[in-house]
Amino acid sequence: MKNEIIDYIKRNRVSSTEIADCLGKTGAIPDVTAINRGQFKVGNVFWAYAYGGTNWDVHEQVQHVQEGDVVFIEVFDCGGRAIIGDLVSKYLILYRQAAAIVVTGKVRDVPHLIKEAWPIWCTGFNPIGCINERLADSLDVDLIASRRALVHGSIAVCDDTGVVLIPKDLHNEDFLGRLQSIEEQEDIWFDCIDRRKFSTYETVCLKKYLYE
Predict the structure, then answer these.
(1) What is the pLDDT of residues 26-50, one digit of tens each?
(2) I need a labelling partner for 200 at 20 to 30 A (CA). Which of 1, 157, 207, 210 fits?
(3) Architecture of the domain whose range is 2-168
């Protein structure tokens, strides 16, 4: 069912906005925006993390990214340093064939990322990157386990509005039905304002089309 949901979203280009509506106005990753406009990506989430101002853990983890994955790098205590730049982006998108990269932190080498039009979402930019050293301590193992259980294997939908995650417990027929219903609703609403010349109040609030 997961693959069917991904395929439906791709074929119908279901936006992150519509996905969030299907999730009851939830699911968005705060503050991440696309570096390059006009991108639309959806796929299985490969969760990784950066911790303590080093990207050693990122390099180690992303060796296992599979084709079509959306690489979601969650950032903990990195002091605003850039987590990745052109090297990791090229490795993931070109050689690992990742669908997209989402970073809950900053990136660097932005002129090249723009030139290559890589599908990357992040919270901002910083020319100062993380160190490439293993730390003596590590991120709390319980936190790693809980975040991986929650995020890894979910579905990410990424576009110009942002990034929304569909949790694993909703990879079922019911959620596919929600996607189909919201697509139908959007068609009806635009027909109401374009052809029937209803106001948005009559369309969205009063649902006047139900009584005609």
Answers:
(1) 999 999 999 999 999 999 999 999 9
(2) 157
(3) 3-Layer(bba) Sandwich (3.50)
